Amino acid sequence: MTARVLLAGATGVIGRALVPLLRARGHQVTALVREPSRAAGVELDDIVVADALDAGAVRAAVASARPEVVVHQLSALRGPAAEGLAHTARLRTEGTAHLIAAAEAAGAERIVAQSIAFATAPRGGPVLTEDAPLHLDAPDPGWALTTRAVAELERRVLGAARLTGVVLRYRNSFAVLRPSGRW
Question: 165 and 113 in contact (C-beta within 8 Å)?
């Protein structure tokens, strides 16, 4: 089964690698980008432009893409670390809320979002599932901000009213990304 996929974060490290995998399986991939010039060299079916922190712009962009599936790979980890963590936290909270609302309004069926496995609490065995608790009380303020934002992203995606939500906790190696052909 192929799908119309809106990939938010298509120009990032994971997004750029994910696009050809999705297209190889026959999916139509539209990128949601803030800066169209960053999509140069990425083989996309279409591009829509919006800042993920602008609810109205996201709603309009998602409506024009008419996706069946929204894939959330948004982050802002380029540049100074503290700024990147804070902006990424906003993308994981506010940006996620905007994507969900827009996807629901556009009639999408599913949202798949990136989370991080290394945000889990430091307890349990070496093999953990997506149900492992997050390290919400991390002593480092930047890490605590990150894990709280990840927890909010997961809560919002899994609790979406009119979408099937899927959260994938990636580990710190890109090698774990193996999208199946099915959504």
Answer: yes
**What pLDDT shows up at residue 100?**
98
Number of structural domains (the chain) is 1
Any domain includes 183? no
| Cβ atoms within 10 Å, residue 173 | 8
Range of the domain at 63: 4-176
CATH (domain of 172) = 3.40.50.720
In a domain, 75, yes or no: yes
Please tell me the pTM assigned to this model. 0.88
Q: According to the model, what pLDDT value does residue 82 have?
A: 63
182 is a domain residue:
no
**Per-10-residue mean pLDDT, the chain, length 183:** 94 92 96 92 94 98 98 81 82 97 98 88 78 86 90 96 93 44 40
Q: Whose structure tokens read 């899994």?
A: 158
